[in-house]
Specification:
It is a single chain. The protein contains six helices and no strands. By secondary structure, the chain is mainly alpha-helical. The protein has two domains: about 90 residues, no CATH class; about 40 residues. Helix 4 packs antiparallel against helix 6.
């Protein structure tokens, strides 16, 4: 695989691990507060990513990066935390096979925000693919 196509391998890895997240999360929140489950998950992710940064010797001084970068990383973290709290609660209330597809509406939201805020181009393929994702989520949610 050429260096310019590595993004696809990582994106597929992300999708695969996200699928496992739904199943493992559903099993993990059984008999436990969804908020506590999210906290445990967050602690494990913190330790896991700290290990990766340590092994790769990628620690940097906290002043690296602009204030704007830091602000958006904090906002991203808060959005991630809110997403996880909602996701785990949804998994407690419904089957993973229904929760995960609805959660993937985040793809359509990311497309809309990418076009609207980041100025990314909207092609007919992107719009049609987004519409298919919405259609699939609606179909699954109404079963």
């Amino acid at each position: 695989m050429s260096k310019q196509h590595w993004w696809l391998a990582f994106a597929l890895g992300s999708a695969g691990f996200a699928g496992l997240t739904a199943v493992f999360g559903k099993l993990g929140v059984a008999g436990m507060s969804s908020n506590l489950a999210t906290f445990i998950r967050t602690c494990v992710i913190l330790l896991f990513t700290a290990s990766i940064v340590s092994v790769r010797n990628e620690w940097a001084a906290p002043d690296q990066g602009s204030d704007r970068s830091w602000m958006f990383l904090v906002l991203s973290a808060l959005a991630t935390g809110a997403s996880w709290l909602c996701y785990y609660r949804a998994l407690q209330l419904a089957p993973a096979s229904r929760v995960a597809p609805i959660d993937k509406l985040s793809v359509v939201i990311a497309i809309a925000l990418g076009v609207g805020i980041l100025g990314e181009p909207l092609s007919w393929k992107l719009a049609f693919g987004g519409a298919l994702i919405v259609s699939g989520a609606v179909l699954i949610a109404t079963i």
